[in-house]
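BUG: 3D viewer hangs when loading the predicted structure for this chain

Environment: internal workstation, default settings.
Expected: structure renders.
Actual: progress bar stalls at 90%.

Input used:
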Amino acid sequence: MYRTHTCGELRIGNKGQQVTLAGWVQRTRKLGGMTFIDLRDRYGVTQLVVESSASPELIGAAASLGREYVVQVEGEVVERQSKNAKMPTGDIEIRLSEIKILNKADVPPFTIEDDTDGGEEIRAKYRYLDLRRNPLQEALRLRHRICLEIRNYLDGQDFMEIETPYLIKSTPEGARDFVVPSRTNPGQFYALPQSPQTFKQILMVAGYDRYFQIVRCFRDEDLRADRQPEFTQIDCEMSFVEQEDVLRTFEGMMRTLFKNVLGVDIPNPIPRMSWYDAMDRYGSDKPDIRFGMTIHEVTAEVQGHGFSVFDNEPYVGAIAVKGAASWSRKQIDELTEWVKRPQVGAKGLVYIKLNEDGSVKSSVDKFYSPEQLRKTAEAAGAADGDLTLILCGEKRKTQTRLGVLRMELGNRLGLRNPKEFAPLWVVDFPLFEWNDEENRWNAMHHPFTAPKPEHLGFYYSDDKEDIAKVCANAYDFVLNGTELGGGSIRIHEAKVQQRMFEILGFSEEEAMYRFGFLINAFKFGAPPHGGLAFGLDRVCALFGGKDSIRDYIAFPKNNQGRDIMADAPSAIDDAQLEELRISVMQPERK
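Structure tokens produced before the viewer hung:
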């Protein structure tokens, strides 16, 4: 055998044993006539020693070793004279009697260390080397542990893991589809699934009342740190359930994950908040509730005093920053420029300082008395020593901008501790959102989301204001300002589904073309059903205390959707294109 033990296994209790190890050379160093070698595998690191009294052949073999050489060694476990308490194997070392080089290695382009000297681009190109580093191995071990706990929990709740197809019909769900040409059906294409949504509903019609799948999904959209073109969902569906059944089941799953993986207890039950409250108070449908600084409307307090910026807008909102009245004008000016960036989109920022000595200072104090400014600041939750920041405009856009500002301040003030967890269910989303550009309604989630039963009167109304009032029987699981998962109770009645297509502007022919197989399946006895999907990559990143999901994916893409290591995507040869009957348009020169 190549090894009797791993490089993370041996302890002082193994002293005196003859062992065989195999792994990669982390580093070598000479001290006097002795050579020390750190040998690494995915289980840990063990120190090896070649003593000065060893044979010339063994000393020569040790001297020939380079970084990342793959070797097999034999020797005796001995107690270290200089112990290393930071290493699990730090009480022992292996006094070598034999070294066998299994494979030599070129000098790696960066150090295979926890704190490497390699930049992101070079590490992505040599991902197989980056994956040897401890932080990435720990990230993938965490992912494995989370998947194992999920499977165990759902199996205990009578869920069946069932695979669904990767080559499907294109049914756009908000992002662009990745499409795959069919050689045997010239001119026709498969799509890669953005989610298994229609298939899991078909499984409910088929009688598999509890389904789950840890499944790859694909969306052709712009990328960022927490988004990849291919990602993994914990996809679940249940029959004969109402919203409460779904929330209770998956609260249990998340409590199990937190307890068994992190040793953390989360609230039971998890708090809930309506979408409208989330937007009004936090300016986000995925609020971070670990800190305050909530949004307050101050329209009534500031209008009618001659300041046209506020008087001519429908909404004025404010947040109070505790203890920030001492901020300098330079700091506030910098923050003003920050909110003017295109990513935020505000035109400016008004401030009110309630100083510790009771005085009041504001950027608009020529329009308001100190008493009026104090009243406005206090309406935003401010007290002496606090700074109030104010934006105005259309209500939802202004709340969203205040929400972005709130999160930025939370980061700057250290209020977003990655080791503190505040889960939340956001419920009662609007079922529809109006598309001004296309002058029609869009489904906020997808066209199979059921309306709240108490809103069916609005649902069947032809009045636009009534339709805007319809809430979806939907829910999102939010953690620390990140949406980890979401789902809904689905439409299972033909009449309700037909009305959904009418509101969305689908003709009967278009609805049948896009979703005919699901609509037909519903004619044969569809049970009430609902479900949700969690983003596994995001769950792993948050459990690991990181902002980016890339370290928790073995082979991620970069911001341009490229696999730098494999150099994909790439061109295909003319013979393949001819076989697929595809011609390629060359991109226009810029």
